[in-house]
Amino acid sequence: MALGASRRLQDGVVAVETMTRFALAVLALASGVYTYLGARTILDGSPTAVFFAAIIYSVSVSVGIYAFWSYMARFYPHITSRTGRTAMLAVMAAGAVMIMAMSSWLNAAALAGSSAVEQHLSETVEAYTADLDRAHQNAIAAQSLLPDIQRAGERFSQLAGVERQSGSLTGTTGSGSVVQLLTQMSAQMKSLEGNINGSREQVADLFEQGQKRLEAMRGLVSAPGDIGPRADQFSTEAVALTGVVSSLSQTSIAPSIRRAADDLAIGFIAPVPDGAAPDLVNRQNQVMETVKASVSAQSKALAKAADEILSRPTVGERRFVPLSPAGAVLEYAGDFIPAWAGAISIDLLPGVMVFILAVVHGAIRRQEDPLPFAERITAAELLQALEVQRAVSASGMSVEQATAAMEKPETSQEDARLAELKADEVKADENTNITSLDPKTRRDRSHEDR
C-alpha cells in the first residue's frame, strides 16, 4: 500500500513539472510587466531612453525571479538535513526580500500609483483648506471688536451732543473744551471703525479667491485622465493658494487696533479749559479727568482684546511636495494594503509551490524508507541487476570476489572491463542459441553442412 501511494506521488510530481515551469514563467512575466509600468513612473529622460531602461530592468527582474524560484523548486525539496534546510530557508528569505525591494513596490506603483497620488492631492487640499480657514478666522477676528468700538464712539458722540445742548456735564451749555474733547474721542473711534470696515472687504475678497483655488484643486483631484498633467496643474494652483493664505495672514487689522489702543491712552491730549468763571474751569477739569479715565479704560480693553487676537497661532507657509506614483504608494502604503498584497503575491507565490513540492517529496521519503529493498526495486532496476549478475558469473568470479574487486580502486576498472567482455560473449552466445531455434535458420545451416 505504501509503495503504491509513493508511486502515485512520484507520478504526480512528474505530471505537474511542466505546469510548475509554466506557472513560474507566467508569474515572472506578469511581475516583469508591472515592474515595467512602475519603473516608467520614476525614470527621467527622453521617451526612448525611459522605454529601453524600463524594458531592460523589467526583463532582468523577470529572469531573476524565474531563475531564483526554479533553483529553489529544484533543490530545496531534496535537502533532508536540518542544517541544509535552515540554510536554504535563509537564502529563500533573503531572495524574497530582494525580490520585494526590486519588484514588488514597483508592481504596487503600477497597480495603485495613480490612486495613491490622488490621495496625496486630496490630503493636500484638506490641509490647504484648513490653512485658508484659519487665516480667514485670524483676519476677521479683529472685526469682533467693531461693536465695542462703535458703542464707545457713539457714547462719546452722545455725551458731546448732550453737553452742547443741555450742559449736563459741566452745567453750562455750548461748545466748550469738554465738547471738543468728546468730539475728538468720537472721531478717533469712528476712524478706527472705518479701518476695520475697510479691512473686511479686503479679507472677503481674498477669501473668495482662496475658495476658487480650492475648488479648482478639488476638480483636478477627481478629474479623469492621466495623473501626471493633473498633478502639475495642481501644483500651480497650490502655489497661487499659498500666496492668498499669506496675504490673508498679513491683512489682519489686529496689530493696527493694538497700536490705536495704545495711542488712545498715551496720546490723550486734553484741551485747555475755556470757561470764563473759575468755577466753570474747575468743572471742565473734572469732566476732562473723567473722560481721560474712560478713555484709559477703553484703551486697556481694546489692547487686551487685540492681544488675544494676536496670540492666536499663525498660519505657517505650506509647500506642496509632488510625489511620483512609486513614492506615493510608499507614503500611503497603509491605505493600499490590497494592492501591496497583490503585488507581493505575484512575486512570492512560487514559494508556495516550492513548499508543496518539499512536503510531497518528504512524504515520498517517509513512505519509501521503511520498506525493504526488494519492495522498493523497480522492474528496470531488477533487469539491470540480473545483467550485472550474469556478467559477474560469466567472468568466473563469485559475488564476494566481485565485491572485493569493486573495493580496490587499482583493479576495479580492469575487472569491470573483463566483466563487460564476458557479458558481451554471453549475450552473443544467447543470441546464437535463440537464432538456431528458427526453422529457416536450421534449414540454412543443414544445407551448408551438406
From TrEMBL:
Keywords: Coiled coil, Membrane, Transmembrane, Transmembrane helix. The chain crosses the membrane at residues 12-37, 49-69, 89-112, 339-360. Residues 182-209 form a coiled coil. Residues 407-430, 439-450 have a biased composition (Basic and acidic residues). The keyword Amino-acid biosynthesis does not apply. Residues 401-450 are annotated as: Disordered. This is DUF4407 domain-containing protein. It comes from Rhizobium soli.
